[in-house]
Amino acid sequence: LRWLNYLRPNIKHGGFSEEEDSIILSLYISIGSRWSIIAAQLPGR
C-alpha cells in the first residue's frame, strides 16, 4: 500500500513551498503537534 501511494501521480514530492510552510506553522501554533490534522490541510502531501 505504501508503494502504491508513492506512485500516485497527484502526490507532491520534494520540499514544502512557502505557502505550505506558513500553513504548517500557523496550524502548529494554534493546535500543537496534531500532525494528522495538519496533514489533512495539505492536499497532495
Would you mind describing this structure in some detail?
Keywords: Activator, DNA-binding, Nucleus, Repeat, Transcription, Transcription regulation. This is R2R3-MYB transcription factor. Residues 8-45 form the HTH myb-type domain. It comes from Arabidopsis thaliana. One of its GO terms (molecular function) is DNA binding. The chain is mainly alpha-helical and 45 residues long. It has one domain (2-40). It is 58% helix and 0% strand. It contains three helices and no strands. The two termini are 16 Å apart.
Overall structural domain count: 1
Tally of DSSP β-strands: 0
Oligomer: single chain
Structural class: mainly alpha
Tell me the distance between the termini: 16 Å
Tally of alpha and pi helices: 3
Largest sheet properties: none
How helical, in percent, are the residues? 55-70%
Q: Radius of gyration from the CA trace?
A: 12 Å
Low-confidence stretches: none
Give the SSE string. HHH
Q: What is the secondary structure topology, with strand pairs?
A:
Blueprint: H1 2-7, H2 18-31, H3 35-40
Which features does this protein show?
45 residues; 58% helix
Quick structural summary:
Residues 8-45 form the HTH myb-type domain. It is found in: Nucleus. The protein is mainly alpha-helical and 45 residues long.
